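Q: Convert this sequence to structure tokens.
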Amino acid sequence: MAGRVLDLDTPAWPDTYGTDAQPRVGFFTDTSVCIGCKACEVACKEWNKVPSDNQGFSGESYDNSGELGANRWRHVAFIEQRLPVGVEDGAPDDLVAEAARQNLVEEGLDPHRDEDGFRWLMSSDVCKHCTEAGCLDACPTGSLFRTEFGTVVVQEDICNGCGYCVVSCPFGVLDQREGDGRVWKCTLCYDRLQGDMEPACAQACPTDSIMFGELDELRERAAERVEVLHERGRGEARLYGEDPEDGVGGFGAFFLLLDEPETYRLPPAPVVPTRLAGSVWKAAGAAAVTMAAGIAAGFLGRRD
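A:
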């Protein structure tokens, strides 16, 4: 990425919209204040009439909704973490209790009955509305398009269910609906944006974990929030997807995380697949030339 300059202009936006182009908007999700209530999931389903898809209790997590998909455009991930309290086996109960209390004070880890520290990490995941969107590049029908707000939307009425966009998303967001075959995902409530309304998930969030607004302003707000958390001793706080120099040109929906991206089942260094297309074709061309030269040499050698 060295020497590569990117800005917030995205393909087909704003130039193709002319005077109808709007400031680019998106989401900043601050996972440090998410309480896992799933109000965003419910609001998204209700407004967009997304079919119910309750996964039920898995026995592995209290999360009952699994992951993003055609029937779930917002998903609140539950990450349950335990850390040892840091005392030797057989230590007095009062010493174990004090170690657990220290975890609670220093690490935000609640005392747990199996003598471990325990905490929840919550994160409301969503389509990233990438600046360089592989799904857009791969769509052969024009079903996916960039809106006047810089967001990425699927037009299900002209989606042919080819699935090219599904494999072109580095986050595994896009999904084909069973029995339908077409692709469905977050639209960032495009219809609400056109009516000058806040997206349903952000409006429903009781803690303002999901913040909606102009992308430039959200990035400034996010940087300030990280500084505050670092001053409070939460050095692990970091932003994910806010950098226009990353492998997808920056997210339109980015996050503040309290652990590595992999902990939240997010790729640590996502790259839009189509960015590599040029080098792949060059390699394929070189291989074809080499093969042709080998065949020609073999043929000429046989004649001799």
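The chain has one domain: 15-80+122-271.
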